[in-house]
Design goal:
It contains 19 helices and 13 strands. The chain is α/β, with parallel strands linked by helices. β1 and β2 form a beta hairpin. The termini are far apart.
């Protein structure tokens, strides 16, 4: 009589079955170390919950008077000092423009032209912060009398700005609280002319020609209205962005007025020292300054090799921008402390200061905007993986699961590995270390930070919908 089958027989057959045995051996995991206990902070930018952190403007790069003037002006207006200082940089650019240049070598020189974008919501205090400097420049313009050599313009049409540059060959600064409106009205044909203005190149409008069309920009934007600029890498790559945190309102008691009279005198000194495009004031980078600049260029090149998209375009303008910042910082220092003669050569200290300003201040602010507005292809893939991890909540994950399940075979194994290393640097995964195996390779698996899941499921938040900009092609 045949023996009745029981559960033990079914279990034995399940194991002995060659197909099941092969599957079990293939998926058997060797012993591994326990999950890590200390993960550190997760990069919040990849969670799409907040923007990247940004530093405050390093006021120590300014000489004592200008540092105090910027701080006192910011306190009296209740705005971030960042906006005040950028208006100061714009003022020097408007007063000097193509009338001064930084000479880095026999055939490399940069005009003192800056394009700057003040970013913040309507209540962030941008307009009050830049109004004091605008009033000082209006006073200087009024001193020109009938010459009409104004350095500040508000009319955005290309012909109007060209008229202003023709009257003031050094150049002008276009100063607007509504930068988005200027961009919206910028035709494609005019965009090419404006790109020439950043380098003070010749401008031809019909039969009219301006040999050095130097036009700096100081434009204010709400963050959500930067989309059109970010869509153009050529435009976005030329701007210096400031997107500071909202400044706390200080007490009115004890708030001392800024020394606007002295500020006006120092700005007047810069205006008088600047030359003309045909005979500009030369700020020559000396040998020590050149060595410092070479060191910056080496760092910049390494960063450019890792960048793409709009960030690569922005980094590509880094060398010229640092030279211009060095020239403006030199003029500001000379205006307060300088002797009767012209400004001194630009040395290593000024180059290092400008490089620090660009790398440690302007770059984090630009990166915060780029991550919010135009993430790179790699960032879009990383965010897509993070969404998948939060939706499914695994304690660990393999490279193949990332490649096949999270990204639907849109990357190869090598690219999936690089994405995992990016996630590791962001505090989201850590590689599992297995005990040695008798044969074969250990599995390519990674622990997932449990805090990623406890911060809330994307499926239950407003962020669950995938942004069109985050779709992996």
């Amino acid at each position: 009589m045949p023996r009745r089958r029981n559960d033990d027989d079914d279990e034995a057959e399940e194991i002995v079955n060659p197909r099941n045995l092969a599957f079990a051996l293939r998926h058997a995991r060797p012993r591994s170390s326990p999950p890590p206990g200390d993960w550190g902070e997760i990069d919040a930018a990849l969670l799409e919950e907040t923007r990247l952190p940004v530093p405050a403007f390093p006021l120590d790069l300014l000489t004592p008077f200008w540092r105090d003037w910027a701080r006192d002006t910011a306190r009296s207006t209740g705005a971030a000092a960042d906006y005040v200082v950028l208006s100061l940089l714009a003022a020097v650019a408007g007063l000097a423009g193509a009338g001064a240049r930084v000479r880095l070598g026999p055939r490399w020189h940069e005009p003192l032209v800056l394009w700057q974008a003040l970013v913040g919501p309507p209540s962030s205090g941008k307009s009050p912060a830049i109004a004091p400097m605008r009033e000082l420049l209006a006073t200087l313009d009024a001193e020109q009398g009938e010459d009409k050599r104004a350095c500040v313009v508000s009319e955005t049409s290309l012909s109007a700005v060209a008229d202003a540059v023709a009257a003031n060959p050094r150049g002008v600064v276009l100063w607007r609280d509504d930068g988005a409106d200027w961009l919206a009205g910028l035709a494609d044909a005019a965009r090419g002319h404006w790109l020439q203005a950043w380098s003070a190149q010749p401008l031809s409008l019909g039969a009219r020609r301006i040999e050095r069309f130097a036009a700096s920009l100081l434009l204010a934007f709400a963050p959500e209205r930067l989309g059109e600029m970010m869509a153009s890498e050529e435009l976005a790559g030329r701007f210096l962005f400031a997107w500071p945190v909202l400044a706390p309102r200080g007490p009115l008691v004890g708030c001392k007025p800024a020394r606007d009279g002295d500020a006006l005198a120092y700005l007047r000194r810069i205006a008088r020292k600047a030359g003309t495009p045909a005979d500009p004031l030369e700020l020559i980078v000396d040998e020590r300054g050149q060595k410092a600049f070479d060191a910056f260029l080496a760092r910049l090149h390494a960063e450019q090799c890792e960048a793409d998209g709009v960030e690569a375009a922005w980094l590509g303008k880094g060398s010229g921008t640092v030279a211009r910042l060095a020239g403006i910082l030199e003029l500001l220092a000379w205006s307060e402390l300088g002797p009767a003669g012209p400004p001194a050569h630009i040395g290593a200290e000024r180059i290092d200061g400008a490089a620090r300003l660009w790398s440690d201040y302007f770059r984090p602010h630009a990166r915060a905007l780029f991550h919010r507005m135009v993430p790179s292809a790699r960032d879009r893939q990383v965010r897509k993986v993070v969404r998948w991890l939060r939706q499914h909540g695994p304690s660990d994950v393999s490279r193949e699961e990332i490649r096949c399940d999270a990204l639907h075979y849109s990357v190869n194994a090598s690219d999936a590995e690089q994405l995992l290393y990016r996630l590791r640097d962001a505090g989201i995964v850590q590689r599992i270390n297995y005990d040695s195996l008798s044969r074969g390779r250990p599995p390519n698996r990674w622990w997932v930070n449990p805090a990623l899941i406890t911060r809330g499921s994307l499926g239950n938040s407003d962020n669950s919908a995938e942004s069109p900009m985050d779709r992996t092609p």
